[in-house]
């Protein structure tokens, strides 16, 4: 065990400094491994969806007697929602959370540790929800499974929490990239939506994770998401004011979706979860009965909107029905994602705006296909408050670079209208706050989260008890040591004082009067800089250290790790000045 423990300890120390060459290189290797593992998980997930999707596709209308026929689009969503709801009812309350909101919450409050029960529930629940026609997408559970797989690798290796945080970003990017076949969008999504910062230490491993996950899915899967786009360019600059107006409409639609989701969350939250999901299934069934286009599992309805197959009324109806059904699904905690439904909502609204553009602008208007593409990007960007993610995702899915110029105008207009006009924020942060949590994204927290306590702890210390013999005190003073850590027998707390204070005491009249058999109580000698010290784990980040000092009576910390049973190894000491240096570096 010692032969294994020593290299692992060395690896953990190397990974504590993410922005130094050894730490960044090692983390990039781990990011690649995470991408490969996540790609395998996504393959299994999609295989199960395809398997059960084929079986559900063979089902037909339900006939009761000779005259009563219940369409498939009515009974299957209700039955599926009921089944998922009853299973979730038997789970513990904290085992039901999943998707992107769960990822952000675990990063913020649990240092990237993911419970296995949530992962299993989301994995199986999403398969059932998607195959029975619930208004959810695949990307939520894909990101969740990717983040969980990466987190488990980091926990197994007992990596520093700042390294685990980056691995969670790797898994999230790998899940999105493998699910949509959009590696660059997966990277931007992880940085912009989940981690909410751009750093070199994050980019390198996350890019490698997205690449490796996409490569795995390309090796084992033949069917990849694709938009059927023939043309996507402006015909005239006269369209620009109309495109800005389209952005306003789509931003308003995104705000309507976010606010309806919040309203329904407050309405459904007091109810049992099986009843919540049953209502979501009923709404999805009703919407699918009126507009069968909302019942599609993949990009079929989106491609239909791109091809302008919907009449104006149908396009608006599909958008409204999908918006309501998705709001119910998200509010009821139905397992799955919201990006795919948002893409359909945006495509339908965009196609409707394209048809109106043809009537208003005549030959100066572009094809409705362009407006449908722009609608997808604007709706996704405004709901997530992530402009780069939306632009890159649509660009990769469509493969048409000429749509970037109008897309930038429409997407940024939609986001500005949602954020500045209606004071709306990302739906993930909105749902997180509705659960009584908040995401700390200030510059201090961002900086401290990136640093490990290992990088800033002082290793120049001597561990002692609260009392010292005179001979031992003289021996310590003769050593090249900066701090003395006097710890209680229970190991829960102690005192940290500079060596200079002990030396000053020994040179004082009281110190010179001590005999060889006397003892010195380190917590009672005159000391100007004696600090009450508490423990913190070796894997902790500087933000955890800062929060520990803020909520406890400790004035300093000693960095430790349990080796076996109650035996703990102390690696260094940490003061408030060190935390300030971590932020000001």
How would you describe this protein?
The chain is of the alpha+beta class. 64% of the residues lie in helices and 9% in strands. The strands form three sheets. Strands 3-5-6-8-9-10 form a six-stranded mixed beta sheet. A hairpin with a 2-residue loop joins strand 9 (556-564) and strand 10. The model has no long low-confidence stretch (mean pLDDT 86).
**Uncertain runs:** none
Query: Which percent range describes the beta-strand content?
Result: 5-15%
Secondary structure: helix percent: 55-70%
Describe the biggest sheet? Answer: 6 strands, mixed
Question: Separation of termini?
Answer: 37 Å
Number of strands: 10
Cα shape: elongated
Strand order of the largest sheet: 3-5-6-8-9-10
Estimate the mean pLDDT confidence: 86
Secondary-structure content class: alpha+beta
Radius of gyration (CA) equals 29 Å
Structure annotation, total helices: 25
**What is the assembly state of the chains in this entry?**
single chain
Name the features:
two-stranded antiparallel ribbon; 64% helix; alpha+beta; six-stranded mixed β-sheet; 585 residues
Question: Which helices and strands appear, and what pairs or packs with what?
Answer:
Elements: H1 2-16, H2 21-57, E1 62-64, E2 68-70, H3 72-89, H4 99-109, H5 116-131, H6 139-156, H7 161-180, H8 183-195, H9 200-220, H10 239-268, H11 273-290, H12 300-306, H13 312-331, H14 339-361, H15 368-384, H16 387-398, H17 404-421, H18 427-434, H19 443-449, H20 453-456, E3 461-464, E4 467-469, H21 470-477, E5 483-487, E6 494-498, H22 499-506, H23 509-512, E7 519-521, E8 531-537, H24 542-551, E9 556-564, E10 567-575, H25 576-584
Parallel strand pairs: 3-5, 8-9
Antiparallel strand pairs: 1-2, 4-7, 5-6, 6-8, 9-10
Helix pairs in contact: 1-2, 2-5, 2-6, 2-7, 2-9, 3-5, 3-11, 4-6, 4-18, 5-6, 6-7, 7-8, 7-9, 8-9, 8-16, 10-13, 10-14, 10-15, 10-17, 10-18, 11-13, 12-14, 13-14, 14-15, 15-16, 15-17, 16-17, 19-24, 21-22
């Amino acid at each position: 065990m010692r032969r294994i423990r020593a290299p692992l300890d060395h690896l953990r120390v190397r990974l504590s400094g993410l922005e130094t060459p050894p730490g960044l290189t090692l983390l990039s290797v781990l990011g690649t491994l995470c991408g490969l593992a996540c790609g395998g998980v996504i393959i299994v997930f999609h295989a199960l969806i395809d398997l059960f999707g084929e079986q559900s596709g063979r089902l037909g209308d339900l006939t009761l007697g000779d005259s009563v026929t219940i369409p498939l689009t009515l009974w299957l969503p209700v039955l599926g929602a009921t089944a998922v709801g009853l299973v979730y009812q038997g789970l513990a309350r904290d085992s039901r959370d999943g998707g992107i909101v769960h990822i952000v919450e675990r990063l913020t409050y649990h240092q990237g540790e993911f419970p296995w029960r949530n992962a299993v529930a989301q994995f199986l629940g999403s398969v059932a929800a998607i195959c029975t026609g619930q208004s959810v997408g695949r990307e939520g559970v894909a990101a969740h499974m990717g983040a969980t797989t990466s987190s488990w690798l980091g926990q197994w290796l007992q990596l520093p929490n700042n390294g685990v945080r980056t691995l969670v970003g790797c898994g999230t990017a790998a899940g999105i990239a493998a699910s949509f076949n959009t590696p660059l969008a997966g990277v931007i999504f992880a940085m912009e939506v989940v981690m909410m910062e751009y750093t070199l230490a994050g980019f390198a491993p996350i890019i490698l994770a997205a690449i490796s996950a996409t490569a795995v899915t390309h090796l084992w899967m033949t069917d990849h998401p694709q938009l059927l786009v023939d043309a996507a360019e402006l015909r005239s600059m006269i369209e620009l004011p109309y495109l800005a107006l389209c952005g306003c409409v789509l931003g308003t639609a995104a705000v309507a979706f976010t606010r309806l989701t919040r309203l329904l969350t407050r309405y459904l939250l007091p109810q049992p979860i099986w009843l919540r999901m049953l209502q979501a299934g009923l709404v999805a069934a009703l919407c699918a009965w009126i507009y069968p286009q909302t019942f599609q599992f993949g990009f079929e309805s989106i491609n239909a909107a791109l091809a302008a197959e919907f009449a104006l009324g149908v396009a608006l109806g599909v958008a409204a029905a999908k918006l309501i059904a998705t709001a119910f699904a998200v509010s009821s905690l139905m397992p799955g994602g919201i990006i795919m439904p948002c893409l359909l909502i945006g495509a339908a609204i965009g196609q409707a705006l394209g048809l109106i553009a043809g009537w208003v602008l005549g030959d100066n208007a572009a094809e409705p296909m362009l407006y449908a593409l722009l609608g997808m990007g604007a709706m996704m960007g405004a709901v997530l408050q992530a402009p780069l993610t939306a632009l890159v995702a649509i660009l990769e899915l469509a493969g048409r670079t000429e749509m970037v110029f109008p897309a930038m105008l429409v997407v940024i207009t939609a986001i500005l209208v949602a954020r500045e006009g209606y004071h709306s924020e990302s739906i993930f942060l909105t749902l997180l706050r509705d659960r009584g949590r908040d995401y700390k994204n200030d510059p201090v927290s961002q900086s401290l989260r990136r640093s490990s306590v290992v990088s800033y702890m002082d290793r120049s210390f001597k561990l002692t008890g609260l009392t010292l013999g005179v001979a031992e005190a003289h021996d310590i003073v003769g050593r090249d040591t900066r701090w003395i850590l006097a710890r209680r027998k229970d190991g829960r707390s102690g005192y940290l004082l500079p060596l200079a204070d002990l030396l000053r005491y020994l040179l004082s009249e009281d110190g010179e009067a001590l005999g060889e058999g006397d003892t010195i109580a380190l917590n009672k000698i005159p000391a100007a800089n004696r600090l009450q010290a508490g423990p913190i784990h070796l894997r902790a980040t500087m933000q955890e250290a800062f929060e520990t000092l803020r909520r406890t009576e400790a004035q300093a910390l000693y960095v430790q790790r349990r080796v076996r049973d109650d035996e703990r190894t102390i690696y260094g000491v940490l003061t408030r000045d060190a935390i300030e240096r971590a932020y000001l570096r």
